[in-house]
Every structure is written in C-alpha cells, then in structure tokens.
Amino acid sequence: MKSTLRSLSPHKRIALVAHDSCKQSLIKWAKKHQIALGSHQLYATGTTGHLLARETGLTIQPLLSGPMGGDQQLGGLIAEKKMDIMIFFWDPMNAAPHDPDVKALMRIATVWNIPVAINQASADFLLTSPLFKQSMDIEIPDYEDYLKERLG
C-alpha cells in the first residue's frame, strides 16, 4: 500500500488507557506530568478517565469502558486520524476478558503509525521528547489512494 504524510500539531490528542492493575500507576504518572498533559486534549476509556479526572483535575474526554467498547471506540478515533498519541499502561501478566479488543487496538495504532507508550518508562520518553512539543509528520497508509485503486 502506498503511504502519505499526516501532520501532528504541537497540541496533541492523547489517549490514556490502563488495565485495572495499572490504573494507579497511570494516575501517579499523570500527576507527575499534569502540567505537560494539561495543554493537550485528553481522552480516556471508562473508569480510567473518571479516576484521572478526579485525581488530577485534568479535563478528560470520556470514552466507554474498554470491555464495553471503549478500546474499539479509541481504535475508531485512531483510524479516523482523530488521535495522535496513545499511552496504554497494560498488564502483560493478566489476561483480560477483552484481550482481543486490546490486540485490535494495538494493531490499529501500529497501522496508523501513532506513537504508543506501553509503560511508565516509554511514556516518560515520549512525553519528554523534543518532538512531543512540536509539529511532526508521520507516514500513514494512503487509504484514499487504496480505495481508488480497488474501486477504479
């Protein structure tokens, strides 16, 4: 498939997601980076979003709970180019009932080439990168061209 460029603005749309066993770690991380996160548009799935808003005072656009469709909602936003970054504190040691949804979410984030952090260390690196604060072009699939070729 051919590719094209998508420009990420300095003002990012950031998804914040955490498995149950990682929610407190994400909250602690968000408190540590509250000032940096506050200047961006934040989204979060279900309980994670409510806890983050309550504990940090950050404005969070809520999605459904992950197992109730929030992971798929988030995947849709990524595919529609309405999400720029995903920070997902996931627990690789515990199987969740919605593991297929999580796998699909990680796949769609990879397909659309958005930066993804999966733990505190990678989230720290992502948030403190000089690229985080500036415009940046990322290469994404040229879906419009793909459709033209298929539908002729």
Question: Can you describe what's shown?
Answer:
This is Methylglyoxal synthase. Its EC number is 4.2.3.3. InterPro entries: Methylgl_synth, Methylglyoxal_synth_AS, MGS-like_dom, MGS-like_dom_sf. One of its GO terms (biological process) is methylglyoxal biosynthetic process. It catalyses: dihydroxyacetone phosphate = methylglyoxal + phosphate. This protein is an alpha/beta fold. It has a single domain, classed as Methylglyoxal synthase-like domain (Rossmann fold). The protein is 44% helix and 22% strand. It has 7 helices and 7 strands. Strands 4-3-2-5-6 form a 5-stranded parallel sheet. A two-stranded antiparallel ribbon has the order 1-7. α3 (46-56) links the parallel β3 (41-45) and β4. α1 (23-32) runs parallel beside α3 (46-56) and α4 packs parallel to α5 (99-111). The longest helix is centred in the last third of the chain and has 13 residues, at 99-111. The mean pLDDT is 93.
